[in-house]
Amino acid sequence: MNTRPSIAIESTDAVVEDVLATTSFIDIHTHLFSPSLGSLGLWGIDELLTYHYLEAELFRFSPVTPEHYWTLTKTQRADLVWKTLFVENTPLSEAARGVIAVLSALKLDTDAKSLDPLRDYFRSQKLVEYIPHVFHLAGITHAVMTNDPLDPEEAGMWKRGIELDPHFPAVMRIDRILNQWSAHHGALSAQGYAAEADGGGASMKEVRRFLADWVVRMKPVYMAVSLEDTFNFPEDDVRTKLFRDAVLPTCREFHLPMSLMIGVRRLINPALRLAGDGAGRADMRAVQNIALEFPDNRFLISMLSRENQHELCVIARKFRNLLPFGCWWFLNNPSIVEEMTRERLEMLGTSFIPQHSDARILEQVIYKWRNTRRTVGPILAQSYKLLAADGRSVTRDDIQRDVNRLFRSNFENWIQRAD
Ligand code: HDL
Ligand code: ZN
User: Fold this and answer.
1) Which domains does the chain have, with CATH numbers?
2) What is the pLDDT of residues 382-396, one digit of tens each?
3) Pocket flag, ligand 1, residue 34 (CB < 6 Å)
4) Is the pTM for the entire model greater than 0.90?
5) Is the Cβ atom of 329 under 6 angstroms away from ligand 1?
6) Residue with the nearest Cα to atom 13 of ligand 1?
C-alpha cells in the first residue's frame, strides 16, 4: 500500500517547476573564468552582443563584410549588432532572445535605442558582488571553467599563482596536445618536457609528467578535449598513443574523468573566426571503442550532431563509464533540447546530465539556465505523469531527489569517485 504523500497528477507540472526553480545547479562546462583569472573573464553588454553566436547571425542580416567588421572596435561591433539584430529586426533567435532575457532579469531597458545607459550600468558593477548576483539569478552554485595549460596568457597566470575559487572549478583542456601535437609539442619541450614530433622516445612519459604537474597546479575536476566530427579511435596516429599512454593513464592516476566533446567541423568559414565552426555527424564507434578499451576511466560525453544523440543513448546503456551531458552549442535550442531530454529520460532514466551552459560571457548563465528550466520542466513532468498513469505516483521528495541527481550529484559523484 503506498503510504507516501504523493502529489496529485494535476499538480505535477507546478511541483516540477517549483523544484527546478528552487534547486541550484552545477554548470559543468563553461568558458567563464574566476575573478582571479582577471582579464580572461568576460561580462557586460559589449561582450554579450559580440558573442560569436550573434556575430554569425549579424552577417546574415547586415551587408557588413567580416573583413570590415574585424577592423571595428568592440564598442562599434556591439553597436552594429544591437542596431542590426535588435532594433532593425526582431531578436527571435535563441542567442538574441537570450540578451533580452539577461537585460530583463537585470531590470534594464530591453528596447534601448542607445547602448550607453546599459554600458553605464555594467561599468558600475563590482565583480565580487556582481558574480554572486548573476549566479543567484541563474540558479547555479558553480560554473566549471575551461583552462588551457598551453595558452601562453593563461598558463602565465597559473604559474604566477592564482587563488582557486570553489565556485569556479578548473578543467584541464588539452586540445593543443591531442589535436595539434605537431604544432604544440615544441611548446612542451620549451617548458622542459622532452616531446618529440613523432611522439616517440620519452614523449609519452614526458606528457604524463606535464599533465601531472598541471593537475597539481590547476586541481582540475576533469580533463577535456573537443574532437572533430571525423574523429576515429583507434587510429595509427600520435593522438591514439597520447590517449593510451599519457592522457587516460594520468586520468586514472588522479581519478579524473575525461570529457570528450565530439562533432565540431572546425572553421568551415574561416572569415568568421570563432563564429566559423560548423558541426558534423561523428562515427560513434570511436566512443564505443574508447568505452570498451578503458573500463577504468570515466568519461563525460557530449556529441555536437543531433544525428548522434540517439546512438549516444544506446552506447551509454552498454557502458556504465559513459556519462552523456548537455545539449551542446548548436543543440542548445528548445526544439532540440526537448527531443534530446525526452530520449535520454526514456533510455537512461536520470543517469545523465541534461545541460551545461557553455557560457562565454558571465551573464549568459541567466538566460541559458532560465531556458533549461523552461524547456526541461514540462518534459520531466510528463515522465512523472506517464509513471502515474502506469501505476506509480511520486512525492515531491522523489522529484527533488531526481532533480538533484540530474543537475548536481551525477556530476559530483563522477568527479569524486576514487575507485
Ligand atoms: O569547444 C568548446 O568548448 C565549444 O563549446 C566552443 O568553445 C564553441 O565555440 C562554443 O562556445 N560553443 O558554445
Ligand atoms: Zn565549450
Assistant:
1) 9-41+140-416 (3.20.20.140), 52-123 (1.10.2020.10)
2) 999 999 999 999 999
3) no
4) yes
5) yes
6) 329
